[in-house]
Amino acid sequence: MREERAYLVRIVTRQALDRLRALGRRKESYVGPWLPEPLLTAPDVAEDVELAESVSMAMLLVLETLQPIERAVFVLREMFSLDYDEIADVVDKSPAAGRQLAYRARAHVAARRPRGTASAAETRAALQAFQRAVETGELQSLLDVLAPDVVYLSDGGGVKHALLRPVVGVDKVARLLATGWWKRDGKRSVELVQINGGPGLLVRIDGEIDGVVAVRVENGYVTGTYHVRNPEKLSRVDRETAMTR
């Protein structure tokens, strides 16, 4: 059984590495910021804090900054608790090299992962306020709910209109959201949902899904907004994706 497990882990990891390298080449010519594909998740995912953080948009973006082999080692060690001998065999490295890769990846992630926390009540209140502000375009309401150093990223993949650079700072992000810059002619609706285990908004124009906004809430304020409009990445937001450890 152990040999079968090791074989399966090796095959899956190598396929994942090939996929990561292919995505890396694609991202070199990608138009604007690249965001992970959003998933519509069930509310119970958010109740498992560890699981929710591991699949959150913010954490996935941190993992994207790792080299493919570092990311593979990090996931195998931190998510699946494989020992270093197993990891070394999977990635064709010595146990010592595997330990060094794991240490470097862990330190990299620890330095960049979001620090603040928010209770369920704080998150719900912040998201509801954010939703109302986005729907109405009321500038003061946005200023009240956004953190001073809030970051806004949008991903249209060159197919839909999106901003080519991150927008940082409460004044800039608030004014941007207040204008509803992504809105084309038609009726816009905004629905509260769970995206990648965290709070988010599902945006529809004339009843059709136009995009999702994953929201990071820390200490009662919105600190990160990740707006995905690329149609190729929206295939899994019309139904919930089951997630377990």
From TrEMBL:
<keyword id="KW-0731">Sigma factor</keyword>
<comment type="similarity">
    <text>Belongs to the sigma-70 factor family. ECF subfamily.</text>
</comment>
<feature type="domain" description="RNA polymerase sigma factor 70 region 4 type 2">
    <location>
        <begin position="57"/>
        <end position="108"/>
    </location>
</feature>
<dbReference type="InterPro" id="IPR013324">
    <property type="entry name" value="RNA_pol_sigma_r3/r4-like"/>
</dbReference>
<keyword id="KW-0805">Transcription regulation</keyword>
<dbReference type="InterPro" id="IPR032710">
    <property type="entry name" value="NTF2-like_dom_sf"/>
</dbReference>
<dbReference type="InterPro" id="IPR036388">
    <property type="entry name" value="WH-like_DNA-bd_sf"/>
</dbReference>
<dbReference type="InterPro" id="IPR013249">
    <property type="entry name" value="RNA_pol_sigma70_r4_t2"/>
</dbReference>
<dbReference type="Pfam" id="PF08281">
    <property type="entry name" value="Sigma70_r4_2"/>
</dbReference>
<keyword id="KW-0804">Transcription</keyword>
<dbReference type="InterPro" id="IPR052704">
    <property type="entry name" value="ECF_Sigma-70_Domain"/>
</dbReference>
<protein>
    <submittedName>
        <fullName>RNA polymerase sigma-70 factor (ECF subfamily)</fullName>
    </submittedName>
</protein>
